[in-house]
Amino acid sequence: MIEDKNTSKTPISELGEFGLINHLTKNLGIKQKTSDFGIGDDAAVLDFKNKKCVLTTDLLIEGVHFDLAYVPLKHLGYKAVMVNLSDVYAMNATASQITVSIAVSNRFPLEALEELYAGIETAAKIYNIDVVGGDTTSSTTGLIISITAIGHANKEDLVYRNGANENDLLVVTGDLGAAYMGLQILEREKQVFEVNPNSQPDLDQYTYLIERQLKPEARKDIPELLKALDVKPTSMIDISDGLSSEVIHLCTQSNVGVNLYEEKIPLDPAVISVCEEFKLNSTTVALNGGEDYELLFTIKQEDYPKIKANPNLTVIGHITDKKSGIGLVTRANEKIQLQAQGWNPIKE
Amino acid sequence: MIEDKNTSKTPISELGEFGLINHLTKNLGIKQKTSDFGIGDDAAVLDFKNKKCVLTTDLLIEGVHFDLAYVPLKHLGYKAVMVNLSDVYAMNATASQITVSIAVSNRFPLEALEELYAGIETAAKIYNIDVVGGDTTSSTTGLIISITAIGHANKEDLVYRNGANENDLLVVTGDLGAAYMGLQILEREKQVFEVNPNSQPDLDQYTYLIERQLKPEARKDIPELLKALDVKPTSMIDISDGLSSEVIHLCTQSNVGVNLYEEKIPLDPAVISVCEEFKLNSTTVALNGGEDYELLFTIKQEDYPKIKANPNLTVIGHITDKKSGIGLVTRANEKIQLQAQGWNPIKE
Q: Where does Mg(2+) 3 bind (chains A, B) (predicted)?
């Protein structure tokens, strides 16, 4: 609803490509000691010395990944950074730089892009990363955001998806399903707004869910916490497409099976109550909802005492041999095969 | 004209996101010794040891940067890689990796994406780079390509835009304006085709121009050549937006002026003859056409003997003090200020 703002608008065509880039990036200095040179040349120059460089990229498309009817641009900028940093942390690495490429149609005034960049800058500041490059261009329709995140780690600290072994414990950070339920609430409010633009929604009770959807936080704290606890995961992945999909990735790439316990999946009370309101199964939501940006990892059993007291970490299962399959053990103690498209209880 | 192909089509929805990524990337192994891990985890892992890492990114949007009516997808994939590698070479660095993110609407069958990837793979093979990551998603309209190129260099070999000094010589590689004239010919043929779809265009005489537009080559050879000649440029930039724009960037960032000699600008005979056909001024085309992907650099006068015999390199001017301005010395020996939007003789 950016068109509703009652402020003066500056067409981006007034600035031209270079003027626009200069305007949007003028506050973006470089601070990281791994950044030698940021914006303003053909390429950025980084120096990771004896560390490994970690690199990941994501593309966000208006109408596919976000709906500007209910996503404020500042939040969108912030979230677009989180989506990428989450992948760096999932390597057990430190994120240090991003590049930001944006394509916009002419319907976006300069002030809208400033909002988007304000979110990106806020994320960069809080997460201690430099914006070292990018591209700004026009699009025929809508907004496109392409971010590449760069990080670094000592070789011995890196964690891949393929290292899980039989008897390892499966651990998840935070809680799951909230971002998906936040989206359901926003979609419902959008429909209400379309029917009655004067309705005043009371979303107070949904604050946690909506925040998880609009302003997720990448788990920068987890690689730090694991280091402090002296635990190196045997495998790790971030949860962007839903627990089910990520468990399957870990097990497939590690060539193992898993028993995942439904009763252990961490759910916030707000998720449980809103699932009842929407008549959705909260386990299904946690397994398939996605956009949680939590981390899923495996540890050796002997490391369990080091993590068991930590409220950020929940053991939700254990790794089995491959032929036992990738299974969900339900509350009724039945073992169901997890599906690549996610477990759907309606089909059972 | 991808819809015209008389082959069977596979909807991309049949494969799903992960199926599609696996299918398109299955041939993309890693070969570079700086690539530790490529596609298949949350992030790629690279190792540049004691070298600096160089990183650049570009976004290509259908309808803005390319028109699929006359750009074959294989060429588009190839060109998208070139656009990015060119920026790495402009740092006097070696390109070693790219990530490729693509968003497509449902109208693209799998076979179209295979063509696009075939071009990307060909470029990666010829230019000796690994595809180490990316993202594949759907778009609401059209095709979007976001590529990040990564390279490396010794600290002492890196060349920035801001190092030009008074009396340095301004040097350009190859020839200019051909890609722009290739585009004019393709645009004209598109219009002819729209009027009469049965017309058989004879484009043989325009082969060089069309190739420069559809299948440009990044100047991987130039950093290698400069090293062999024992010449380190004082500043360097690639020519993507036109000579005029890039000269202004170099001079502004180096805080100097320039005398650029119109008669020295290297033009292919095909450019001169087609400019006559289109009633365009060939100097204007060379200055503002863009998409040449040649390199523009400055060298110390004392290095002139090392480069003067080389047919790839043309001295087109010399650096002056800042207050002399950024000037084009015309064939009539008049000095005209170069404009940020490019020199337009119609305005004079």
A: 42, 87, 238
φ, ψ (nearest 5 deg) of residue A104:
-135, 150
Name the token pair of A181.
């339920």
Lowest mean pLDDT among A188-202, B132-146, B318-332: A188-202
Q: Do A53 and B58 touch (CB under 8 A)?
A: no
Q: What radius of gyration do chain B's Cα atoms show? A: 21
By C-alpha distance, the chain A residue nearest B56 is A43
Find the residue in B nearest to A38 (Cα): B55
More confident residue, B282 or B341: B282
Interface ipTM: 0.89
Residue A343 has pLDDT above 50, yes or no: no
Check: CATH 2.40.10.10 for B2-157? no
CB-CB contact of B140 with A96 (8 Å)? no
Tell me what percent of the residues of chain A surpass a pLDDT of 70: 95
Instruction: Judge if A2-156 and A169-337 fold alike in CATH terms.
Output: no
For an interface test with B, the pick among A48, A55, A288 (most B C-beta atoms closer than 10 Å) comes out as A55
Joined together, the tokens standing for residue A41 give: 């040349």
User: Cβ of A55 and B46 within 8 Å?
Assistant: yes
Give the nearest chain A residue to B140 (CA atoms).
A63
Of A236-250, B24-38, B154-168, minimum mean pLDDT range: B24-38
Report, as an integer, the average pLDDT of A244-260. Answer: 96
Q: CA-nearest residue of chain A to B154? A: A47
pLDDT at position A7 is 55
Q: Is the pLDDT of residue B83 over 70?
A: yes
Residue B99 has pLDDT above 90, yes or no: yes
Classify domain A169-337 by CATH number. Answer: 3.90.650.10
Question: Which of B36, B60, B91, B148 to mutate to test binding with chain A, by most A CBs within 10 Å of its CB?
Answer: B148
Q: What angle do CA B303, B300, B88 make, to 5 degrees?
A: 95
Using one digit for the tens of pLDDT, what is the confidence trace for A96-123?
999 999 999 888 888 999 999 999 999 9
CA distance B228 to chain A (A): 23
Domain ranges of chain B: 2-157, 169-337
Instruction: Write b or e for each residue in A228-249: b if 16 or more Cβ atoms lie within 10 A of its Cβ, otherwise e.
Output: ebebbbbbbbbbbbbbbbbbbb
Tokens matching residue B237: 């930039």
Residue with the bigger pLDDT between A29 and A37: it is A37
To the nearest 10°, report the CA torsion of B211, B215, B218, B220: -90
pLDDT tens digit sequence for B212-225 = 999 999 999 999 99
Question: Hunting for tokens 């095969």 — which residue is that?
Answer: A337
Domain A2-156 classification at class level: alpha beta
DSSP string, A23-89: HHHTT-----TTEEE-SSSSSEEE--TTSEEEEEEEEEEBTTTB-TTT--HHHHHHHHHHHHHHHHH
What whole-number distance in Å separates Cα of residue A98 and Cα of residue A23?
Answer: 18
Cβ pair B101:A141 closer than 8 A? no
Would you say residue A342 has pLDDT above 60?
no
**Is residue A138 classed as helix, strand or coil in its secondary structure?**
strand
Shortest Cα distance, chain B CAs vs residue A270, angstroms: 29
Give the gap in angstroms from C-alpha B24 to the nearest C-alpha of chain A: 17
Q: What is the DSSP letter of A204?
A: G
pLDDT for residue B4 is more than 50 = no
The answer to whether B343 is annotated as binding is yes
